[in-house]
Amino acid sequence: MTDRPPFARRGMPREPVMPRGDAVATFESYQEAQAAVDRLVHAEFPLKEVSIVGSDLKSVERVTGKLSYGRAALAGALSGLWVGLFFGLLLVLLSPTGSPLFIGAAALIGAGFGLFFNIAVYSIGRRRRDFTSVMQVMASSYSVIVSPEFANRARNVLEGPRAP
What are the residue boundaries of the General stress protein 17M-like domain, all occurrences included (predicted)? Predict the structure, then answer.
């Protein structure tokens, strides 16, 4: 048995380690950094030597709308409906005498439970948070880092003629 974390991929270090090497290019967006790594892929560059490092991380919360009892109830009912459908389907598949009506009944029970649970949670925290939002972590810049022995080759690939 190894001391590797349970969900670590092969080839990944056992503990997170900051990549070392030379920054061969820096970009304002992650998509631009990905495109640069894609160019290295097409040039058959040794990819185990490449990393994308984001700098100056910021937490950005984008407000998406106003939260009300109606929205809280609808969101709770929909999430409960999916959970109910899952358990109803599981019950029908695992039970030799299970009726397909169990799926509908479980979906309705799940929707009802989700509706009431979400309304209760919204009622408790209503004045503290009356909006919905999406949270993101973003970087100010993204650098393509390559080990020093391959840095010049990477720069040549990235500074060469651009593909259409």
Answer: 24-99
